[in-house]
Write a structure and sequence with these properties.
There is one protein chain. This protein is mainly beta. The chain contains 2 helices and 8 strands; from the N terminus they run E-E-H-E-E-E-E-H-E-E. About 10% of the residues lie in helices and about 45% in strands. The strands form 2 sheets. The protein has a 4-stranded mixed sheet. A 4-stranded mixed sheet has the order 3-4-6-5. Strand 7 and strand 8 form a beta hairpin.
Amino acid sequence: MKLRILDNSIRIRLSQTEVDRLSALQEVHATTEFPNYHLNYIICPVEGSDFRVSFNGCVIRVSVPELLLKDWNGNETVSLSGESNEIKILVEKDFRCLTDRAEDESDLFSNPNTNC
């Protein structure tokens, strides 16, 4: 899971395995470890139609409506977006880069701009 925060927006990119978990209505989480501090970020399915976001000092929790997550792994929808407490939320499938990078991209989605 990749997290990007810019002003009042949160963007999260997910691997195929993470999208599969969310489509099965299971939460996905990751941790960034700082000296003496951990920042946890979690995406979890939630009933209803509203996105939600919260932060308690060490955990960013993004809740995405279950109806959007069901079958997300099997369809062509790339991103899910919403807003909560004036924070824009974008959750999207992460694609392999078109150029070689020093990252393991084996679990990322095939880039639609390639001939693969």
